[in-house]
Amino acid sequence: MITINTCGLTDYSPLIPAIKALYCTPKGEVLEIIMENSEAFHDLKTYLSEQKIGFREIYDGEHMTIQFSIP
Known about the structure:
CATH architecture: 2-Layer Sandwich
Number of strands: 4
CATH topology: Translation Initiation Factor IF3
Strand content: 25-35%
Low-confidence stretches: none
Structural class: alpha+beta
Radius of gyration: 11 Å
Order of helices and strands: EHEHEE
Mean pLDDT: 92
Shape: globular
Number of domains: 1
Number of helices: 2
């Protein structure tokens, strides 16, 4: 499993490292992205749904995590 933690990013959108990881991770690998920005988290979920990529959501206080396998 590859984990990308976007918490604390203020210079740019947390979607940038998330989408980069999505396209740089080998097929079949599980990707876990941790966010604290609820707007970006919602946008990522919408994108994955549009691409028909199943995912798992985990909520832990201020952090939101999404896990999915790269198709």
